[in-house]
Amino acid sequence: MSNIREIAKKAGISIATVSRYLNDNGYVSEEARKKIQVVIEELNYTPNALARAMFTKNSKTIGLMIPNISNPFFNQMAAIIEDYAKNMGYTIFLCNTDDDKEKEKNYLEVLQSHRVAGIIASRSQCKEEYVNIDIPVIAFENHILDNIITISSDNYNGGKIAFEHLYQRGCRKILHIKGPQCFEATELRYTGFLDAAKAKNIKIDIVEFQSDFQVKMLEVDKKSIKNIRDYDGIFVFNDIAAATVMRFIKKSGIQIPQEVKIIGFDNSFIGELLYPSLTTISQPIEKLGTMIVQLLIKLINGEEVLIKDYIIETQLIERETTKVFKL
Amino acid sequence: MSNIREIAKKAGISIATVSRYLNDNGYVSEEARKKIQVVIEELNYTPNALARAMFTKNSKTIGLMIPNISNPFFNQMAAIIEDYAKNMGYTIFLCNTDDDKEKEKNYLEVLQSHRVAGIIASRSQCKEEYVNIDIPVIAFENHILDNIITISSDNYNGGKIAFEHLYQRGCRKILHIKGPQCFEATELRYTGFLDAAKAKNIKIDIVEFQSDFQVKMLEVDKKSIKNIRDYDGIFVFNDIAAATVMRFIKKSGIQIPQEVKIIGFDNSFIGELLYPSLTTISQPIEKLGTMIVQLLIKLINGEEVLIKDYIIETQLIERETTKVFKL
Question: pTM of the full predicted structure?
Answer without folding.
Answer: 0.83
